[in-house]
Amino acid sequence: MTEKEGAFFNAIQHTPNLRSGLVDTLIAQIESGDLAPGQRLPTEQAIMTATGVSRTVVREALASLRAKGLITTRQGLGAFVSNDPNPRSFSIVPNDLESIEEVISVLELRIGIEVEAAGFAALRRTDEDLERMQARLDALDASILAGGSGAAEDFAFHRAILVATQNSYYARLFDTFGNLMIPRQWARFDTMGPAERQKHMARMRREHGAIFAAIRDRDENAARKTLRSHLARSAARFAELRDHTGQPTA
């Protein structure tokens, strides 16, 4: 690897997550043009040597870039920057959510989107929207009581809020992300006993209920406030889990 190529990867040495750091570094080089369309990437071994990360981390990073359409692989030749590497749409893929830190980042993104949407929903919702949201909340309770994670039902409730904005772009954006906008893999539902699960469900019902009530009452400010509080508390709980478990970076 040349000195210039090695410089591409210096930025990941102190990142909290090695895989995401390598992905971010490569994306930055592609977007800046330092890695040009059609250019061959350094070999896995060269990247390992330059960064000190494992082969697994390198392969996971390259898989994430492939999923985003930024690189292609050619049998026996290696990985190449796509001829048209500029993504036409933003997406979140499973490999993007392999650490609690990344889950928190998604929650921060959701705050930016959903808080304003809740305000619009409060102003524009219909009776049909309220019926849809209530049905989603009932389904969420039933899923958790039955031992499920409630991820799909939680997604459906939040999507119902976006639908209530009467602005189809909100729901379409959420659909692009899919259930990954409701990250559950770090929530440890499988380790919860009945009492803890009941406590969790009560907290979710209370927070979701406050959002629902604000939208029902057409209280724009309260809708924004309760939605922000709900997602901020979720982010805080994941941060507490991260600090408690001492999750490894990679």
Q: Could you explain how this protein is built, in words?
A:
The chain has 250 residues and is mostly helical. It has helices spanning 3-7, 18-32, 44-51, 55-67, 100-124, 127-145, 151-163, 168-177, 194-216, 220-245; strands at residues 71-74, 78-81. A two-stranded antiparallel ribbon has the order 1-2. The longest helix is centred in the last third of the chain and has 26 residues, at 220-245. It is elongated, with a radius of gyration of 21 Å. It starts with a helix and ends in a 5-residue tail after the last helix. Residues 11-16 have low confidence and may be disordered.
Question: What is the topology, as strand order, of the major beta sheet?
Answer: 1-2
Largest sheet: 2 strands, antiparallel
Discrete helix count? 10
Mean pLDDT: 80
Report the end-to-end length measured between terminal Cα atoms: 24 Å
Give me the Rg, rounded.
21 Å
Helix-strand string:
HHHHEEHHHHHH
**Dominant shape:** elongated
Protein structure class: mainly alpha
Sequence stretches where pLDDT stays below 50 over 5 or more residues:
11-16
* Helix coverage percent: 55-70%
Strand segment count:
2
How much beta, percentage-wise?
Answer: under 5%
